[in-house]
């Protein structure tokens, strides 16, 4: 048992023996055993615990001790610990200062100099996860994010769950198609169980994360391609506009995880409208499926169901009919 553990492990018997030691200038296990009416081995154990907690100090080499004050014991126990903590803190500050100073050198050498203090391009690789980690640690009140693909949910920003458990307001938007995956459902259950919120939309255009309405991390190109890198935005006006856009999306989003029938019907209606939009746009099935975050087979199944509903014989005819049917959002 360490000295600090001993200080936390003083039981009632040891406390009473400490009171006893305060009546004497010096004492040993024989005196303690006689005065406390306990076996000498128990008295020796109690003195050992008091010594480990620095509440008594040895006098000479004959097994005698003298009592000390709790203030002296506190100084003896905590001074080396505090010195170690201060040394580690200085190391952290000096290391951070040194590495932050090298950031400019790295970006200039790689041809990725920051656009300005308000806009910083983060190249593919370790820079994006490092920025995520730093922003997650600094986040203190609210966090909002959009996820496109099913693999991105819970992977790009694994700190979402940890932030929710810290009491931070976490809101996440995903695509409807993602909620059909068991892994995503499990993640959603964990996040909502920790106090977070998850809603869904038929289509999202890019991945982003908003931290305390002070910083935005957004993918460097549309879609869900991690190799594109990201842009860190701290410009207050841009951050405000992005947050307003998220609030608009959040207000129109629903959750297929909700057991309420009305909301489930609304979510299905939104997904049908999104499929109709893709059909009317003339995009290929591959492009449409990717934009809606679903497999090609699933997208074609939705198209087939929509054609049956409209009574269309061809896709071209269906593309014209969705406009007349008012299915375009």
Q: What can you see in these coordinates?
A:
- The protein is an alpha+beta fold and about 325 residues long.
- It folds into three domains: about 5-70, Winged helix-like DNA-binding domain superfamily/Winged helix DNA-binding domain (Arc Repressor Mutant, subunit A, Orthogonal Bundle), CATH 1.10.10; about 120-250, Endonuclease Chain A (Endonuclease, Chain A); about 260-325, Arc Repressor Mutant, subunit A, CATH 1.10.10.
- The chain is about 55% helix and about 15% strand.
- It is built from 13 helices and nine strands.
- It has helices at about 5-10, 10-20, 30-35, 40-50, 70-110, 125-140, 160-165, 180-195, 235-250, 260-280, 285-290, 295-310, 315-325, and strands at about 55-60, 65, 120, 140-145, 170-175, 195-200, 210, 215-220, 230-235.
- The strands form two sheets. Strands 3-9-8-7-4-5-6 form a seven-stranded mixed sheet, with helices on both faces. Strands 1-2 form a two-stranded antiparallel sheet.
- A hairpin with a 3-residue loop joins strand 7 and strand 8 (about 215-220).
- The longest helix is centred in the first third of the chain and has 40 residues, at about 70-110.
- It is elongated and about 105 Å long.
- The protein starts with a helix and ends in a 5-residue tail after the last helix.
- Residues about 150-155 and about 260-265 have low confidence and may be disordered.
Mean pLDDT, rounded to whole units?
A: 77
CATH topology (fold) name of the largest domain: Endonuclease, Chain A
Count of helix runs? 13
Q: Any guess at the CATH architecture of the largest domain? A: 2-Layer Sandwich
SSE string, helix = H, strand = E? Answer: HHHHEEHEHEHEHEEEEHHHHH
What is the domain tally?
A: 3
Shape: elongated
Helix content: 40-55%
- Rg calculated over all Cα atoms: 32 Å
Q: How many strand elements?
A: 9
Name the beta content range.
5-15%
Structural class: alpha+beta
Distance between the termini: 69 Å
The largest β sheet comes out as: 7 strands, mixed
Indicate the low-confidence ranges by residue numbers.
150-156, 258-267
The CATH superfamily of the largest domain turns out to be: Endonuclease Chain A
Strands side by side in the biggest sheet: 3-9-8-7-4-5-6
The CATH C-level name of the largest domain is Alpha Beta
Protein name: HTH luxR-type domain-containing protein
Domain HTH luxR-type: 263-322
GO molecular function: DNA binding
InterPro entries: Sig_transdc_resp-reg_C-effctor (IPR016032), TrmB-like (IPR051797), Tscrpt_reg_LuxR_C (IPR000792), WH-like_DNA-bd_sf (IPR036388)
């Amino acid at each position: 048992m360490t000295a600090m553990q001993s200080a936390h492990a003083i039981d009632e018997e040891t406390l009473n023996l400490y009171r006893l030691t305060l009546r004497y200038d010096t004492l040993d296990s024989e005196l303690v055993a006689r005065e406390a009416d306990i076996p000498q081995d128990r008295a020796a154990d109690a003195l050992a615990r008091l010594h480990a907690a620095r509440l008594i100090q040895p006098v000479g080499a004959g097994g005698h001790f003298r009592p000390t004050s709790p203030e002296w014991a506190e100084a003896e126990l905590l001074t080396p610990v505090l010195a170690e903590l201060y040394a580690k803190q200085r190391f952290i500050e000096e290391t951070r200062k040194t590495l932050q100073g090298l950031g400019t050198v790295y970006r200039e050498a790689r041809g990725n100099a920051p656009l300005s203090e308000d806009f910083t391009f983060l190249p593919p690789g370790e820079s994006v996860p490092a920025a995520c980690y730093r922003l997650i640690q600094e986040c203190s009140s609210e966090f909002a994010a959009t996820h496109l693909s099913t693999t991105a949910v819970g992977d790009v920003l694994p700190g979402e769950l940890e932030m929710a458990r810290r009491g931070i307001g976490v809101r996440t938007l995903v695509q409807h198609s993602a909620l059909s995956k068991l892994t995503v459902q499990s993640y959603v259950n964990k996040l909502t169980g920790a106090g977070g919120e998850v809603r869904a939309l038929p289509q999202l255009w890019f991945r982003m994360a908003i931290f305390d309405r002070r910083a935005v991390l957004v993918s460097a190109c549309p879609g869900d391609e991690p190799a594109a890198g990201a842009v860190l935005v701290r410009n207050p006006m841009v951050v405000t506009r992005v947050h307003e856009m998220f609030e608009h999306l959040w207000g129109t989003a629903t959750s297929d995880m909700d057991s309420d029938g009305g909301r489930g019907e609304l979510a299905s209606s939104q997904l049908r409208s999104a499929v109709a939009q893709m059909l009317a746009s003339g995009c290929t099935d591959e492009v449409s499926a990717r934009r809606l975050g679903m497999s090609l087979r699933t997208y074609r199944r939705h198209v087939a169901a929509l054609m049956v509903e409209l009574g269309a014989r061809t896709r071209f005819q269906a593309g014209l009919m969705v406009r007349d049917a008012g299915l375009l959002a």
